[in-house]
Amino acid sequence: MKRITQLVALVTLTTLLAVGGGTAASARGTAAVSANPSTVAVNETTTITATGLGGLEDAFFGLAGSPGGLLSTQSGGAGSTDVSSPATDGQATAYFRATQAGTFTVAVGDGETVLGTVSVTVSGSAPQPTATSQSPIIEVDSSLVVGQKTQVEAKVDGLQTVGFGLDSADGGSFSDGGSTGPSITTAVTDGTATVEFTPARAGSVTIALSDGETVLASAVVQVAAAPATPSATPTPSATPSASPTPAPVADSAPVLPWILLVVAILVIAGLIVWLVVSRRRGSGARRNGPTAD
Fold first, then answer.
1. 100-152 pLDDT, tens per residue?
2. Annotated region Disordered: where (predicted)?
């Protein structure tokens, strides 16, 4: 029940942000929200802290407008555009990992009202880790088509399991042969974790790698819409060829024996008539012979 309540609260917070309800006006007061550091580079993480939450049990963190990254909490998860974090002594914390340059707003709410916001500036791109570094790396095709399966490989050291997640649940699904879903946890073998990813919608999809507490790495995949398949339409064109008129010719084949039978009957009838006439003529000639003497 608590999980359902949290999901409803996250949706409410996202809706408030979308309609511009980001003013921190609440009967419970406002919260002070800070980002440390407030400026990061792509693929770097900043800590978002909300204080002055009073007796709030759970604080809801969300990204307004263009996400620009992923949020995660210490409770685990590969990252999402909105998360719930438990509040202790009026304070709650989340982590924002940037995936693109720009200025992005992180809002904190109580599930009904936005209590405070903070802006995070993401500058340029962080140096990409090399294969020999200790930083986790995600290897995946950067261009895919909806429904096209591809392998996602994560290079990570010192972990037995890692989590794969998406910036939105409708972006697609992962599979490791044992479990399937928009976020899964899989084993690391010899420093490598491998899953299969199938995109479900066109657009930009962010794949995130997590250790259960923090987003370790991310990769952006551009997904194109699946091409239309006109192969279904040619099948009707095959139907005209299936209706050739020679079919009646096959039905007319049995008529020939009947024609031959009729002709034979007529010939036999003609022979019978001829025999009858011949006999009558012969008998008439015999009768006329003796009278002549």
1. 889 999 999 988 889 999 999 998 765 544 434 457 889 899 899 999 999 99
2. 229-248
**Secondary structure tally for the chain: helices H, strands E:** 4, 20
Same fold, 2-125 and 137-224: yes
**pTM of structure:** 0.45
> Residue ranges of the domains in the chain?
2-125, 137-224
| 2-125 CATH pick, 2.60.40.10, 1.10.760.10, 3.40.50.300, 2.40.30.10 | 2.60.40.10
CATH architecture of 137-224: Sandwich (2.60)
**How far is the C-alpha of 209 from the C-alpha of 134, rounded, in Å?**
14
